[in-house]
Amino acid sequence: MITVSGLRKTYHARRREVVAVNDVDLEVRPGEIFGVLGRSGAGKSTLLRCVNLLERPDAGTVLVDGVELTALSDRKLRAARRRVGMIHQHFALLSSRTVAGNVAFPLEVAGVPRTQRSARVAELLELVGLSDRAGAYPAQLSGGQKQRVGIARALAAEPTVLLSDEATSALDPDTTRSILDLLLDLNRRLGLTILLITHEMDVVKRVCHAAAVMREGRFTESGPVSELLLTEGSELAAGLFPLPAVQTRQGETAFDVTVSGPAADEPLLSELVRELGVDIRLLGGGVETLAATRAGRLRLAVAGRGEDAAGFLRRRGALVTEVTR
Ligand SMILES: Nc1ncnc2c1ncn2[C@@H]1O[C@H](COP(=O)(O)OP(=O)(O)OP(=O)(O)O)[C@@H](O)[C@H]1O
Ligand SMILES: [Mg+2]
Prior knowledge:
Layout: E1 2-13, E2 16-28, E3 33-38, H1 44-51, E4 59-64, E5 67-68, H2 74-80, E6 84-88, H3 99-109, H4 114-127, H5 143-155, E7 161-165, H6 173-190, E8 193-198, H7 201-207, E9 210-215, E10 218-224, H8 225-229, H9 235-240, E11 252-260, H10 268-276, E12 279-289, E13 294-303, H11 306-315, E14 319-323
Parallel strand pairs: 3-8, 3-9, 6-7, 7-8
Antiparallel strand pairs: 1-2, 1-4, 4-5, 9-10, 11-13, 11-14, 12-13
The structure holds adenosine-5'-triphosphate and magnesium ion.
């Protein structure tokens, strides 16, 4: 649905050159929620602005729903961009317009006749749960309600994809959850494809089917969450399952055992103990229900037969890495 290849964007500021996006490839499949996780300054917003061509990349191509946006003239681009909705961290609502007026705005720009417009606005407000606030002004709304207006407005022109730039970072944890639940619901009900950027691991955990980690303009890892978790050295996996430092005893070997998908619900440890007759100490870890998979990562100390234990767990589909620190 979104295909980005070889994307590059450089800024020139006061004789300094910043390569904000450096040779990024990205594939978001139809109906997928894809999260780009990265620290401040990693290039996330620049990437997103290049995806809807608010910013022209220096190199690379962007295809959305089969249309190569990078090949379009500015005039054709304005029309094509209606197929791409966007929501923002600080909502970007028009303060002088009511909730209904904000949602109607893109429809007015697109020349939709008044009667059709009000029917569509009512439908959109219903979709985001704000039917009773149609006449309110942005200043009279909570942050979560403002973001609901932002979402309704972004969906007005029936986009095939929604881009989200830190849509929940200005919200408290409970409101964040309700907005993420709304995005999940829209994704399921409308089949909406969503590309979101965030600096919060929790956002990726709750809603993303696939993800990338961005650092200094580059993707350091990218793919379905269930696969990244089983990739050795994955930053995403380490961030999702923080582990304590190892403190092994004489004769013990420490392992990190990561499972994703059906293996996360298997009684792997009791089978291991029965099969090999080893003793295991649990040093840390967790099991989580993510958007697209169940997954867990445990740090174990195995007394004796460490290699056999690792082999057993690997045969059962776990990623096993020995911990030496
Ligand atoms: N218009 C601009 N002119 C010059 N430099 C810019 C411009 N926009 C962004 N940059 C630089 O490009 C880099 C990436 O910025 P970007 O805003 O994409 O990061 P980000 O990952 O979205 O960060 P944050 O999480 O803080 O929003 C930064 O070093 C930033 O200073
Ligand atoms: Mg940003």
